[in-house]
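Tutorial, part two.
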Amino acid sequence: MITEEKIVVTKGSDNVFEDLGFSPIQAMNLKIRTDLMIELRAFILKKGWTQSEAAQFFNETQPRISKLMNLDVTRFSVDKLINMVALTNMKINLEIS
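Running the prediction step on this input gives:
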């Protein structure tokens, strides 16, 4: 006998952290940090750098860059990530709606 299971799909918001139950303030902070980390990770990958080379560029340790590359959002503040982005000469566009 074949039984059919219904799969329920719920459309999420634009912030996965809110969907996971974080408060709106925490969710916004986590999303901003994650977005910055994704851009920094892409920058490092585009350069083809090792973690050691990236660490030297950002004046960080290799283990810290490893945490960045693994998107360990708990290890970085928004301020720290903005300072790292500034070193790359990338621009940050802030949109508030």
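The chain has one domain: 16-88. In part three we will examine how such features are distributed along the chain.
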